[in-house]
Amino acid sequence: AQSVTQLDSQVPVFEEAPVELRCNYSSSVSVYLFWYVQYPNQGLQLLLKYLSGSTLVESINGFEAEFNKSQTSFHLRKPSVHISDTAEYFCAVSEGNSGNEKLTFGTGTRLTIIP
Amino acid sequence: EAGVAQSPRYKIIEKRQSVAFWCNPISGHATLYWYQQILGQGPKLLIQFQNNGVVDDSQLPKDRFSAERLKGVDSTLKIQPAKLEDSAVYLCASSLRQNTDTQYFGPGTRLTVL
Description:
Chain A is mainly β.
């Protein structure tokens, strides 16, 4: 069965500093990987996803994540954070080609940007 | 484009009472999901519909939870009777087809069971 581990429940970062939110997954088959973000008082929304092809995927607001099969990781990074990046970030995995690719979410990482 | 609508936004009930949540997905989205998000945890899939058929309800506590999607559009999730451990945010999401498509989430219904 698939599972997702987000070891850091809270990450405080100074504005304009780099950040990395860690995500590791467990699966016996090929996977699809996602990062969802929940801004304060808003619903969950997709930030970026890896389905196939290039292992480095990017979002429109400067985040990127790299699929590393050997380390079973999909860490999320941003070189310089902004106050508006304050949110909770959820990593999710779906097992590809299983016939029912349901999403399994991690427990989330709360990113707090310090001015 | 209108997003996923859910109602009510908040609900407080006593244990053993019943409660129902409503979801209206994005127009044209064939797949609808109900998730339960307990405080401090990630969303957990309860049930997935493809049009009006159930694709996955393996994590739905069927002795107390039920869900339906009439005519493949709106959906309702019911809990009867509620337990204290059902306190959570109930999220509805929809996507065009399958799970690799982007899921669009509604604002959720926060349920408190006293």
